[in-house]
Amino acid sequence: TLTNVGSGGATYRAEVERPKGSTIVVSPERLVFGSKHEKRSYSLTIRYRSNSEFVIADGSITWIEENGKHRVRSPIVISPGVGDD
């Protein structure tokens, strides 16, 4: 969930730095707010193919206001699990 901190309406677009070995889909890719303190939700679908080293991978999603005034960054960390053999 993202909260608009601007003084009025605003539009933010998503910019994703994908963790190595992953594909990420953001839905929706743009969030449109009508007023200050309004909240909008989004979802991430993450697919990850681990390598043989089971390395933790990191990235982020950054929501950037169209006028460039505000940016909101959230980290993404992928930690491969160990399956049953």
From TrEMBL:
Residues 1-78 form the Subtilisin-like protease fibronectin type-III domain. It comes from the Eukaryota. This is Subtilisin-like protease fibronectin type-III domain-containing protein.
